[in-house]
Amino acid sequence: MLLYLRSRRVPLALIAAVGGAAVVWGLCLAFAKERDVTAMVVVMTVLLMVAVLSSTLAGPDENLDRTASMRWPWRRAVHLLAGLVVVLAVLLVTRYTGARFGPAALVSRDAAGLLGLTALCATVVGAARSWFLPLGWTTVAVMYPQQGVWGATATWQGQPAESDAAMLIAAVLALGGLIAYSIVGPARR
Predict the structure, then answer these.
(1) What pTM did the predictor assign?
(2) Dihedral sign, CA of 80, 131, 162, 89?
(3) Is residue 67's pLDDT more than 70?
(4) Are 186 and 126 in contact (CB under 8 A)?
(5) What is the DSSP string of 78-139?
(6) pLDDT value of position 38
(7) Rounded to 5 degrees, what are φ and ψ at 41?
(8) Residue 21: CB partners within 8 Å, gap ≥ 6?
């Protein structure tokens, strides 16, 4: 297990993801006038953590995943779910501090949806470039959220936590990414 984690650069990614979230939390704690962090900062912090963790979706030799005698699908699924737990644990523990990331439904929805989207991208273009689409899409969606069902579907990341359309798209992306990445794995270089 230790060799698996080191080969995927998990310790370094965890330090970077948690450190990045801690910097954002510290800045919000020091400079924000309100205790609740704005939704835009919450979504962009989730995106930061997911982008950093995307580097762990493939090892140095992506073909090794396909040729090893071990069964990889359940390992890949556990890997994605562990990434989700890390993002949720780090951001939701701030609910008890002076700068709160929330609401919990928003953090959960965006973390699951963005991890699923990143996993889908890793399956198609590889882990090294898997964060490109989530970064671009989320940046536009957060800056220009749209109203209505179709607008909420297209800009699901920037929608309020109560949006059913945004929740549905995030769930589809999360489930699709989990299944595709677990079965297929990262794209070959």
Answers:
(1) 0.92
(2) positive
(3) no
(4) yes
(5) HHHHHHHHHHHHHHHGGGGSSSB---HHHHHHHHHHHHHHHHHHHHHH-GGGTTHHHHHHHH
(6) 93
(7) -70, -35
(8) 45, 48, 49, 90, 91
